[in-house]
Amino acid sequence: MIPFLMISCAYGFFFLVRAAGRFRQWISLALLSSAFVFSAFYLESYFFLSPFRIGTSMFAGMRELVDRSVSISREFPVVRVGRSISEPHIFFAFYQALDPRQYQQASRNWLVFEDKGLKFLDQYDGYSLGKFRFGDLKNSEPVSQPTLYIGRAEDFPSDYPYYFRLDSLNGQPEYQVSRRDPS
């Protein structure tokens, strides 16, 4: 549909300029000026405004989150990653450059989500990739060993202590990495 509309508009503009007679130069100048102004607004929106508006949905900061979390996770026997990060196992596999054979081996155990009547893997609570456990954070429950929690900032109470937070481009807390020790 869009190509048809574009071709129709181009034909209409061509016909308008051709039929304009002595106003041809003014109409051509007005059309070119309009195209320039609209292009400038589009480019400004694309390069300057879009990162602030859609950065969260485009997972801005995910590489930094994974890199920093993996380096901290070496100190922890248990690492829990919240399901509020959509399909988090993909990011951890990709940014750690995980061997595909290791990923395939781990993913064989994930198929139980279908047996539980779930449609998507990230609905399943408790699938793992190495020591990373994906699902509900359960950060309010007691733990038996030091545990690292990785999730969106809204998954944690505002006074929950953290290693680091990553903010979105508009300055709002986006991701948080916290720890919990046995009581």
TrEMBL record:
Entry's transmembrane regions: 29-49
Keywords: Membrane, Transmembrane, Transmembrane helix
Protein name: Uncharacterized protein
